[in-house]
Amino acid sequence: MKPSVGIIMGSDSDLSVMSEAAKILDKFEISYELTIVSAHRTPDRMYDYAKAAHDRGIKVIIAGAGGAAHLPGMTAALTSIPVIGVPIKTSTLSGVDSLYSICQMPPGIPVATVAINGAQNAGILAAQIIGAFDEAIYDRVNAFKSELKETVEKKAENLEDIKFSAYLKNMNK
Amino acid sequence: MKPSVGIIMGSDSDLSVMSEAAKILDKFEISYELTIVSAHRTPDRMYDYAKAAHDRGIKVIIAGAGGAAHLPGMTAALTSIPVIGVPIKTSTLSGVDSLYSICQMPPGIPVATVAINGAQNAGILAAQIIGAFDEAIYDRVNAFKSELKETVEKKAENLEDIKFSAYLKNMNK
Amino acid sequence: MKPSVGIIMGSDSDLSVMSEAAKILDKFEISYELTIVSAHRTPDRMYDYAKAAHDRGIKVIIAGAGGAAHLPGMTAALTSIPVIGVPIKTSTLSGVDSLYSICQMPPGIPVATVAINGAQNAGILAAQIIGAFDEAIYDRVNAFKSELKETVEKKAENLEDIKFSAYLKNMNK
Amino acid sequence: MKPSVGIIMGSDSDLSVMSEAAKILDKFEISYELTIVSAHRTPDRMYDYAKAAHDRGIKVIIAGAGGAAHLPGMTAALTSIPVIGVPIKTSTLSGVDSLYSICQMPPGIPVATVAINGAQNAGILAAQIIGAFDEAIYDRVNAFKSELKETVEKKAENLEDIKFSAYLKNMNK
Amino acid sequence: MKPSVGIIMGSDSDLSVMSEAAKILDKFEISYELTIVSAHRTPDRMYDYAKAAHDRGIKVIIAGAGGAAHLPGMTAALTSIPVIGVPIKTSTLSGVDSLYSICQMPPGIPVATVAINGAQNAGILAAQIIGAFDEAIYDRVNAFKSELKETVEKKAENLEDIKFSAYLKNMNK
Amino acid sequence: MKPSVGIIMGSDSDLSVMSEAAKILDKFEISYELTIVSAHRTPDRMYDYAKAAHDRGIKVIIAGAGGAAHLPGMTAALTSIPVIGVPIKTSTLSGVDSLYSICQMPPGIPVATVAINGAQNAGILAAQIIGAFDEAIYDRVNAFKSELKETVEKKAENLEDIKFSAYLKNMNK
Amino acid sequence: MKPSVGIIMGSDSDLSVMSEAAKILDKFEISYELTIVSAHRTPDRMYDYAKAAHDRGIKVIIAGAGGAAHLPGMTAALTSIPVIGVPIKTSTLSGVDSLYSICQMPPGIPVATVAINGAQNAGILAAQIIGAFDEAIYDRVNAFKSELKETVEKKAENLEDIKFSAYLKNMNK
Amino acid sequence: MKPSVGIIMGSDSDLSVMSEAAKILDKFEISYELTIVSAHRTPDRMYDYAKAAHDRGIKVIIAGAGGAAHLPGMTAALTSIPVIGVPIKTSTLSGVDSLYSICQMPPGIPVATVAINGAQNAGILAAQIIGAFDEAIYDRVNAFKSELKETVEKKAENLEDIKFSAYLKNMNK
Q1: Residue from G11, G40, G109 whose CB has the most chain D CBs within 10 Å, to mutate
Q2: Is G113 helix (H, G, I), strand (E, B) or coil?
């Protein structure tokens, strides 16, 4: 099946974070591809990837990068399909550098930025974008949100039933 | 014509910024509605707006807010259509408070955050989201990016032709 | 006994911090309830909780949340009883995001914000609010502050009596 | 009438901000006193003020200060009635210094911190604290919030009726 | 004369800052070219410019950009000649966003970052780089630094001679 | 009279701030000298100044600088008399850069840092240091603090006597 | 022997940091006392301590505190002897809160602020202050700085003699 | 062989970071020297080192320092050869203090600042500076960048071939 979402990241050190985007797309049964594209080490690869994406049927690109994180913004410069940026947490500046590098784009070239390390949310946002025109996907996102609600409600019930100290003990088991 | 995009903001003091989203959607000939919805002063209005949006045919919501900016995130909590957040610059913290309040959403509920005061980019992103499934809109975004390119190229040519001091003088005229 | 204080938090991962509020209220013999209410995952539950609180006799709500922490501010938007906000420390931004999201409320809807992870202080503040009209509670807060004073004075005496290196060794035992 | 709320500030340069607290208390018909108490220039005055407040019938203290803002926290150290802190915006650090100095109190001594320059909200919070035990005041806060809601709704209606460019022009008149 | 230094900037709004680099190179009699190259609006132009620079005889590139400032880092990714980055001050984040986006480059692709708005220093640094292998240029930089020294010494002498209040009055004339 | 305090600054653009240190020393009748010493433009001058200070009878040095503010720390490295550092507010980073550059000295070489633009306080601190061994100076500092107290008390009295709106009007006259 | 320096801290959890001040004073053979004084938990004790210090012969006070760190500034408000402030690193804001709370004092009441956790430097600064009027102490500080110099020079020599990889191995032994 | 690059650092605690600069210069077969020069503990050594560097044939200096990091800027003040600054990560402020102290140099004295802990990039930048006039070195930098590209491409190929969960497992082996 042709992928609808392209997940790219600047380095394989970002994979443990970025794989959360893939997992949630799997859950929504949305096809995707996942690879490494470095803005700084493989600029030609980035150009080719971004310029070809639309013709290859990609609907949304999710791009994760850390530090001077140029991959999401440059990808957005090279295509007109929506690009979601995931700022990766860094060891020195905790990802504030990544966040500013991705979010503060100039007029004309937006990047849809999610939270630092928010790759799962990037996947959900991609699903919502596709779901804007595909009711089946929309319904899956809706169902997922209902699950979230029920999980919280069950935990709340449980916490109300037992003393909080008991709940805390159970959590640490 | 039924609006495809809902533009909402927490206060009419955000209108001079947020109207940039409307202007660019006008340019792309995408229908929209624009109104004031305050998360804190009109929470019921926000609930009703967000919950009804999908059934009313809205494809994307653009929400702008400043300070403890809860409107984009709460709207995203109440609907499954994509929500774009515009952090409004604040007089005390320059919009870093708005940015963090909008961007740092928990797993499950993404907001597509653009730059501080980046309302024009929010409009372009909405167009790109619709353009992912509507080639006519995609082509308009593409054409807009070509215009941007040509404007830069013309300015560059001009700057290369004349001394920079002359160029600066022309700018200040 | 009907609870006077409602302690709510966005996720059970906040419980180890937020339980400090409960512990100090236990010490002050102030009745409370404690549960999970997520602004983003259970917005309807939050609406119902906040809107019913006053009629159920709740005098003060303590709300803890992290990241784009909307629970305290939204609760404050939905009730007119005082809301105390506890910014939870986050792994990426250390709770500065939580602090700004809770503290920087717009004119009209205040949240009484305490320190990052300051749940014990939230409990004391709730007691002080109740104590403003209940001398017995006021006296308990006063007594608690005297205890704090005496603990410091005893430690100071001890530190003055022995060499600081000995004191440090005792601390690390 | 004996004042229920004490409004103090570190310097008369804070008065234009802090008077917003007084104005809203006037609106709620809550009696207050307002004066200057500097933690650093009049520490004895601060001690006397804070220690006498409870016996003088003060229910809540609102304290505003900027920079190394010690007035709210020291007042809270010297009394057991609730203290609301207003971080004043500073010319160098925009009030982040004030916010941290007021909010980050150690376990045992809370300050109910509002937004930078949020003196109006400090007044509303004081009213909510009193309203927790005085239904008449509670109702006035409730009515005030309804007014806020109606103001937003009227503006929203107006904005929906006319083109946003017309609305902007009216604003700038 | 073939230019030794290429000065590029993301927008002509950066020209008033970036022209300082040109002025100091004029003073050092180092040939340069100056133009607009936008990473986001003219990505192909940036590729062509950066890839051709070495063969065209450019020794150093000075690149200025603001916000999510990708121009210096992407240029550095596309050439092996040294790239000096000038973070432009922004209206919302004062250039901290530009600084992080330019400075925090990943291993392998350095950008020589100067101070926010430090375009004159970028020009001096370019001269120092050329001066590392060209003694005439080295001597000019040296002479320039002597001038700076003498200017400070003359001002110091003047300030020591007259009362500081007189000096301040002279400055404000 | 031989000066007891040396006031130095990196540039005459710092003079309007740094002259506050001189004015307060005038008030305390403490002799001082005031001049320009740039760490970066006149490093030899700085060496000579700092190394000779003790033998010339200087008891305390006050050094003001902005941005990458090296003058206070380097002066402290070159002498063993106490050095007070004044971080000058900068146009881009508001003096946070100056503050960090002055305050975060490594073990072995302290700088007594005051607030951003806190030159008056630097003068008072110098007086307090001299006053530690000179009771006449100590008494003058004490008297100055009494004056501060009385000024606040008079303003407080005035504010308590008239309505705050009248007080504000008087301030703006 | 009557102490010349008073070392105080807000909590015994600050002792492992603050003891560095004591150790260096021991090295300089300067008498000191060391105890716990909490601005917030023992405000009366702080008043008494600060007000009595001068008459008890204390020449300098070193005060360490974290978070909303009011101890140094309040002590400075209550005495006219010089106060050195040590901002203690905090678990949430890394001591930026402590730094701002200590450093950003208003005109009239300076605190001589050292680096975050810079207690050793606080001790050295106290020695320098005493050394300004006591040549024997001045000479000891001078000698200490020579030791520092020699330590660095020896390490440098060693590093130049052996390969850096060998040096690193020796460090990790 | 006479060294072309001088690598200096403020303390041997910076060696594990700074040795990355040496390793990459080894790879490029560029001669260097490496030693410890502390701006604050050995200011005379720093003066001598910086002033002699040009005559000793040094083409570029790489200087690493942390906190109030004055070594790169002071070295740049004392020589006219290019100075590359490496801000070392600090335990309290994560290297933001180092970054500001190194980067925010005043007009006239630039430091070529790389990322926090970016010593490898400092080495590459030094090679690029030398490569601007030495084609053999230029070619080695070019070859190194090709290697980087190929490494990424191989990893990308591998990641595309196997499931990401398998790739992650291999990484953690």
Answers
A1: G40
A2: strand
Low-confidence ranges of chain D (pLDDT < 70): 1
Q: CB count, 10 Å around CB of B18?
A: 28
Q: pTM here?
A: 0.97
H109 touches chain E (CB under 8 A): yes
Checking if the pLDDT of A67 tops 80, the result is yes
Query: Would residue A141 count as lying in a domain?
Result: no
CATH number at residue H75: 3.40.50.1970
CA distance A104 to chain B (A): 4
Q: Examine the domain organization and report whether A25 and A67 are in the same domain.
A: yes
pLDDT tens, position by position, B4-34: 999 999 999 999 999 999 999 999 999 999 9
Longest Cα separation, chain E: 59
Query: Mutation test of the interface with chain C: which of A98, A152, A154, A168, choosing the one with the most C Cβ atoms within 10 A?
Result: A152
Q: Is the pLDDT of residue A129 over 80?
A: yes
**For chain H, what is the domain count?**
2
**A5: CB partners within 8 A, 6+ apart:** A25, A30, A31, A32, A33, A58, A59, A60, A61, A62, A123, A126, A130
C139 lies in some domain: no
Do residues E124 and E167 both lie within one domain?
no
CA separation (Å) from H108 to A58, A84, B60, C148, F67? 50, 41, 51, 56, 13
Q: Look at residue B46 in the predicted model and tell me its pLDDT.
A: 98
Write out the residue range of the structural domain in which residue A166 sits. Answer: 146-173
What is the pLDDT confidence band of residue B173, given thresholds at 50, 70 and 90? confident
Same domain, D16 and D62: yes
E57 and E100 in a single domain? The answer is: yes
Scanning every residue of chain E, which has its alpha carbon at the shortest distance from the alpha carbon of H5? E132
Note whether B27 and B110 are same-domain residues.
yes
